[in-house]
Amino acid sequence: MSGTRHLILVLGDQLTPTLSSLATGDPKYDRVLMAELHDEATYVRHHKKKIAFIFSAMRHFAEELRTAGWTVDYVKLDARESQGSFSAQVTQAVAEHQPERIIVTEAAEWRVSQVLAGWQTQLSVPVDILPDDRFLCTPSAFRDWAEGRKQLRMEYFYRDMRRKTGLLMDGDKPAGGKWNFDAENRKAADANLFMPRPSAFPPDAITQDVQALTEARFGNHFGDLAPFWFAVTRTDAEAAFKAFVEHALPHFGDYQDAMVEGEPFLYHSVIAQYLNCGLLDPLRVCRQVEAAYRSGKAPLNAAEGFIRQVIGWREYVRGIYWLKMPGYDRSNFLGHTRPLPEFYWTAETGMACVKAAVTQTRDEAYAHHIQRLMITGNFAMLAGIDPHTLHKWYLSVYADAYEWVELPNTVGMSQFADGGLLASKPYAASGAYINRMSNYCKSCQYDVKQRTGKDACPFNALYWDFISRHRDKISTNPRMAQTVRTYDKFNAAEQQRIRDSAADFLASL
Ligand code: FAD
Ligand code: DLZ
Ligand code: SF4
C-alpha cells in the first residue's frame, strides 16, 4: 500500500494541465488516476477514430503529467486492472491506495455527473467535485441569466460574454460598431478557391498502439481508423490552430455556411475535438483570433464569426444543457418517430449531399456545422426521424461529440424538438437552399428544380410536406408564417402531389 493523500481522477475530456482538480493537488503527495474504460467507449458505439483519438490524447497527457512530476496510474483498456467503468475503477483504486479524499473536476455530461455524485456515500471517502473553470459561464450563472427571460436568445448571452471577456470590445462598444457580422458570413463557395487543409500529424507509436487496440476491441463500430491525422498532444493541437489562424481564418467568415463536394473542411478550424477534450483552451484561441484581427491579418467578420461560435454558441449550448437536463434528451415537440434510415451508416443513397456528409463522417469523424445542420439534420427533421435516435447518431459519429454540446445542437437547433427554446424557427430547408450554398446538386441523380415526382429532389416534397404536417405548430411563428401562406397558395392537386411524393420517398427508405 502506498501513502496517497488525494486520489485525483482525470476524465478523458479533462486533458488540461491547469484543470481545477490538478490545481488543488500536489505531485508529492497525490496520485492521478486515468483509465481507458469499456463503458465510456460503448455508452454509444463511438466512431473508431474518436476512440483512438481520445485514448491516444489520454496516454500523451498522462506522459505530460508524469514529466511534470505527477504519479499517474494509467489503466489501459486491455490491462489486467481494467475495471470497465469509472465507479469500478475508482472503487479498486480506493481499496488499493486508501486516499484521504477523492478529487475530481465536475463531469461535462449529466450521465457521468450522476455517477460521481454517488461516490461519497458508496465509498465512504470524502469526494470533492470542483467546478470546471475551462468554461466562461458556470451552469448556475447561466441559470441566473435565463431566469425570468421569455426567450433565451444566444445573441444576448453572447454580448454578455463579449463584455465579460473584453473580446473584440473597444471600451464598452463592440469592435466595428456591430455585435454580429453573420449577414456577411453566407457566401457560397467557389470550388476553384484554394482550400487550406487542416494540419495533419502522422500517427506516432502510441497512436498506432491505440489504433490496433480500437480495431481489436471495437472493430464493429462505425467509421474508418485511417487516415488518422489528428493532433494528440497540446503542442500539436496548438500548432494546428496557429496554422488555421494563418491560412484559413481570413476566409472563415465569408464561407462559414458554404459546402463543396470533395472539400470536407473548407475554411473551418477543425478544433472542436481539441477544445472539447481539453487540449486547447477556448479563451486562449479567441485571444489569438482577436490578435489576428487587431494586427490586420484577418477581417472583422471572420474574427467575430469565430469568436461568436466559441464564447457564444459553445457556452450557450452548455448552459441550455445543464438548465434542461435531465429530460432534455427526450424532447420531441414535433412528435417524430421514424427510425434512422440505414444510409446514415452506409452512405448508400442517391442524394449527393447526404452521401457526401455521411461519407466524410465515416472517413474523418468530422462534418462541418452546415452539413450537420442543413444536410443530415434537416433531412432527419423533414423525414420525421425520432430525435432521440438521431441524437445517439450524432453523439457517436463525430470526434468532437460529447452530450453537453451535441444534444442541444441536435434536439434544439437542428430538430426543433424543444419547441423553439434554442432556435427561433425550425432550420427546415428545401433543395433550393442546398443548391445555393453548395455544388452537390450538380452531380446528384435528383433534380433540385423539380418539386414532385420520382426524379425530384427529395428535400423539396419533404419540405412542403413538413410545412403542411406541422402547420399548427409552426404557423404562429412569425418567421414561418409566410412559408405556410406559400404552401396554402398551391392548388389542391399540387398539394396532393407533394403528399404523394413525400410518402413514396419515405416508403422507399
Ligand atoms: P468551426 O466552424 O471552425 O467553429 C469554431 C468552433 O466554434 C468549433 O470548434 C466549436 O468549438 C465552436 N462551435 C461552432 N458552432 C458551434 C455550435 N453550434 N455549438 C457549439 N460550439 C460551436 N459541436 C461540438 O463541438 N460537438 C458536437 O457533438 C456537436 N454536435 C453537433 C450536432 C449538430 C446536429 C449540429 C448542427 C452541430 C453540432 N456541433 C457540435 C456544432 C458544430 O457543428 C461543431 O462545433 C463544428 O462543426 C466543429 O467543427 P470546427 O471545429 O471546424 O468548427
Ligand atoms: C468519450 C470517452 C471515451 C470514448 N473513452 C473514455 C475513457 O476510456 N476514459 C475516460 O476517462 N473518458 C473517456 N471518454 C470521455 C468521457 O466519456 C467523458 O469524460 C464523459 O463524457 C464526461 O464528460
Ligand atoms: Fe441534395 Fe436534392 Fe441537391 Fe440532390 S438535388 S444534392 S438531394 S439537395
Keywords:
5% strand; 7 strands; 509 residues; binds ligand DLZ; Serine Threonine Protein Phosphatase 5, Tetratricopeptide repeat; binds flavin-adenine dinucleotide; 3 domains; 5-stranded parallel beta sheet
Can you describe what's shown?
The chain has 509 residues and is mainly α. The chain folds into 3 domains: 6-130, Rossmann fold (3-Layer(aba) Sandwich), CATH 3.40.50; 139-196 and 248-324, Serine Threonine Protein Phosphatase 5, Tetratricopeptide repeat (Alpha Horseshoe), CATH 1.25.40.80; 343-508, DNA Cyclobutane Dipyrimidine Photolyase, subunit A, domain 3 (Orthogonal Bundle). It has 24 helices and 7 strands. The chain has helices at residues 20-23, 38-42, 48-67, 86-97, 110-117, 119-123, 139-146, 154-165, 205-218, 234-247, 249-252, 272-277, 282-294, 300-324, 343-346, 352-364, 369-383, 387-397, 403-414, 431-437, 458-469, 471-474, 478-489, 492-507, and strands spanning 6-9, 31-35, 71-75, 101-105, 127-130, 169-170, 173-174. The strands form 2 sheets. The chain has a 5-stranded parallel sheet with strand order 3-2-1-4-5, sandwiched between helices. A two-stranded antiparallel sheet has the order 6-7. Strand 1, helix 1 and strand 2 (31-35) form a beta-alpha-beta unit. Helix 3 (48-67) packs across helix 9 (205-218) and helix 18 (387-397) packs across helix 19 (403-414). The protein is globular and about 80 Å long. 47% of the residues are buried. The model has no long low-confidence stretch (mean pLDDT 96). Flavin-adenine dinucleotide binds next to helix 12, helix 14, helix 17 and helix 19.
